[in-house]
Amino acid sequence: MKRLLALAALAALGIAQTAAAAAEWTPVQLALWNKLQIFSEERDVNGLRLDLIYGKNEDVRGLDLGLVNNSADLIGIEAGAANWNRGDMIGLQAAALFNGNESTGDLIGLQLAPALNYAPRADVYGLQLAAGANYLPDGNLYGLQAAAWNGRAHNVYGLEAGVLLNCTTDLYGLGAALANYSDGHVYGLQAGGLLNLNVGRNPIAGAQVAALANYAPDATVHGLQIAAAANVVADGAVTGLQIAAWNEGKTLTGLQLGVVNQATTARGAQIGLVNKSDRMAGFQLGLINIISSGTVAVCPLLNVQF
User: Fold this and answer.
1) How far does Cα 222 stand from its chain's mean position?
2) How far apart are CA 156 and CA 169, in angstroms?
């Protein structure tokens, strides 16, 4: 008898544990509103969730469809007018309006929206695609951002492609847009339809190419700057090559090639119509050549100082 009672107790405990585990998640959820849905907000959904107007649950694993979808962690596919995520996302978020994430978690996969992908503190591993904007001010991108306006990402490791503007702190890779703005390090290529702008005393290693101007007044440039109008590193240093109508660097080690070339201290060569340097270790080739501290301060055609 005691043995039967013990077996019955174990069976009851197993049923209770199974019921408790089942109570933590459901394979199907249907919501009209988060207060009017089949299962409570505290449940996980492992399977299918349909949100007719607005649904809210903890983790969703599987397929999440609706007008407005709200979940903590998402693993799977989420599609709606608006998707809001409070944790990690692994998979695909596709929205008719916008995707939002309020966590400091990881987004692994693809975010797709016509208006906005908003993940101010998350790290994105994959793709963010929007017709309007991608916004990642305190997070990092490892992959690709493409939108009319990418602004702003903390660190970009990969490709930032914008129609109008890319805005980032550090760039490790390629930034291409009408204008590129950074206030940190740049290691790679910035290609601006009009302008590349870097503020702060930061290194730029690679290339800046712009139809109008490259403006990095305080930077340390190692590599190449090419622009139609101007390359300006007025209070910084350039090691490499500057090509533009107007080239300016406080300290130049390399070559300036343009209409007007100017440096405070130059080691290398300046080739243009007007070349000016306060101190020179190299040569100037142009119509007017000025070395303020040279034996011959102003000389046509060629001026040399070593």
Assistant:
1) 22
2) 8
Degrees to nearest 5, angle at CA 127 with 225 and 206: 15
Q: How many CA atoms lie within 13 A of 285 on its CB side?
A: 7
Residue 241 one-letter amino acid: L
Predicted TM-score (pTM) of the model is: 0.85
Model confidence pLDDT, tens digit, residues 38-79: 999 999 999 999 999 999 999 999 999 999 999 999 999 999
Instruction: For residue 110, give the nearest of 132, 131, 95 by alpha carbon.
Output: 95
Q: 């129609």: which residue's tokens?
A: 163
Distance CA 72, CA 101 (A): 9
- pLDDT tens sequence across 117-155: 999 999 999 999 999 999 999 999 999 999 999 988 889
User: Does 279 sit behind a cis peptide bond, omega within 30 degrees of 0 on the bond before it?
Assistant: no
Q: How far apart are CA 108 and CA 106, in angstroms?
A: 6
